[in-house]
Amino acid sequence: MNIDRRSLAAAALLAAFGLFLTACGGGGGNGSLGGSVDPNETAAKVNGKAIPMQDVDRAVKQQAQGQETKFSPLELANARLQVLDTLIQQEVMFQKAEKESTVPTDDEVTAEINKQKTASGKTSDQIAKEMADAGMTEAALRDQVKKQLAIQKLIDKVTGKIEPPKDSEIDAFYNGNKDAFVKKKGVKLGAIVIDPTNSGEGDQTTDEQSSVLKANEIIGKIKAGQDFATLAREYSEDQSKFQSGDLGYLAQDDLNQAFGDAIAQNLMNPQLQIGGITTARAQGKLFILKLQDRSDKDEPVTLDSPGVRQQVIDSLLNSRKQLLATSYQTIAMNEAKIENFLAKKVVDNPNELSGARPAGAGAANTAPAGSNTNSAPANGNVNAAAANTNAAKPATNTNAAAKPAASPAKPATTPAAKPAANAPANK
């Protein structure tokens, strides 16, 4: 059972406030409805503080990922209204943060930007280009990060008043959800991921041949007795490198979906001992996998099982934090003086919007496409001619780095009343 230890409310509030890591699209007109106007026109005011149209259109551009050029005036106006509603909520909460003295220092903002740039895995030139494409200046980026951190600090301050749940509450939660506390049949994996795509300066694996050579070099180091976690931190081209290559626990269904039936069967085969190494092709990448643990059947876990009690505590705390943060935001919104000029223009001009798309513009298709990925078991060197299997291309993550995280595990979503289905991997 995987439970996000961060405040769920914080994640919900901040999810829409994308930074420079969001995928950036092409052009798109400015406008209060569906046409062109001055980008410096005020879209809304929060307690007298203006939100300019350029901020609205920048956010639409980031979220639409280049598809906004295909929007009809009606679709564009709707997108702008939705984005503006988020920006209004952000401004309300930021003004609250200012009153509560949770605004970060310039040094904290700089440190956060540097951390996110490093985590993206992109070069300075790539980041600069994406920012330029999105119409994002360094000053605008700093302002967004400043607001993000301020709101997070505010939420942490507000929810920090919540006390840990009592033992009786923990017992009641567990007893009411016993069916969910099951360690599913599956495996716990470590991974070193090699990406054949060229991500720019410094990338040494830029094609199939160099990727296979690098994978075989790493496998040779593993056979020579070098530490897998250390090699993952040094060589893996994936965000899991920051967890020493840990992909977590994958139930068999998730394993099949991530790597295909052949690899799943190999990992579940008792002949592959714990600590054994195998290779796979998935998501267009090469995976060197280390089997860290395996469960051959579904097993119930108790509150005395390692990690379970803490996860119940975290689940209960996060549920309360979510409720408290949402309630706090509701009060803040009720107290704020909000003037939404963009919405007023829609009401005042109900017949100006057309649902017709611009000439030559097809339907905006943002659904993930199917793709061929390779998946083949191997106990030694990677085979460049592995068999093809069809797999669904993972949904695009707008905050992904140039080489997106390859961790195939599906994150568990934990409602207040129900724990996630998978129990901790460790017994």
Description of the molecule:
The chain has 13 helices and 11 strands. With 427 residues, the protein is an alpha+beta fold. The chain has 2 domains: 8-162 and 315-348, Triger factor/SurA peptide-binding fold (Orthogonal Bundle); 183-300 and 369-392, Chitinase A, domain 3 (Roll), CATH 3.10.50. The strands form 4 sheets. The protein has a 4-stranded antiparallel β-sheet with strand order 5-4-7-6, with helices on both faces. It has a 3-stranded antiparallel β-sheet with strand order 2-1-9. A two-stranded antiparallel ribbon has the order 3-8. A hairpin with a 2-residue loop joins strand 1 and strand 2. Helix 2 (53-64) packs across helix 3 and helix 3 (73-99) crosses helix 6. The protein is globular. The model is unreliable at 1-32 and 365-427 (pLDDT under 50).
In short:
This protein is of the alpha+beta class and 427 residues long. The chain contains 13 helices and 11 strands.
What's the layout of helices and strands?
Layout: H1 8-14, E1 42-46, E2 49-52, H2 53-64, H3 73-99, H4 106-120, H5 124-133, H6 138-159, H7 167-176, E3 182-183, E4 186-194, H8 208-223, H9 228-235, E5 246-251, H10 252-259, H11 261-268, E6 277-282, E7 285-295, E8 299-300, H12 308-335, E9 338-340, H13 341-348, E10 370-374, E11 388-392
Antiparallel strand pairs: 1-2, 1-9, 3-8, 4-5, 4-7, 6-7, 10-11
Helix pairs in contact: 1-6, 2-3, 3-6, 4-6, 10-11
